Amino acid sequence: SILVKFFDMCRDFPKGIFGTGTKKLNISVFEAVFSVACKVGYTTKNTNVEAISQTKIEKLKNDSDFAGAASTKSTNKDKVEIRLKKAQEILLG
After folding, report:
1. Which of 35, 55, 70, 89 is positioned for an S-S bond with 28, CB 3.0–4.6 A?
2. Other residues' Cβ atoms within 10 Å of the Cβ of residue 87
3. What is the pTM of this model?
């Protein structure tokens, strides 16, 4: 499944890669990385997952626009769109 392929891609990432600050898991970070990595595979109905580097995930987490859209009222449609746009730019750009 695409989820298994995604977790395979993440296998060597350090513990807490999807976390921020003291949080071990920030769902907004996970959502953004998962969404970008799996977008092509999902739309073409296969299990292809884009390789995403740990360095780019850290860069995404440190981006002020992304962080702002992930910190408060994170379920707001506009904030979700900002996060996904920034993730696309930083992770695959």
Report:
1. 70
2. 27
3. 0.90
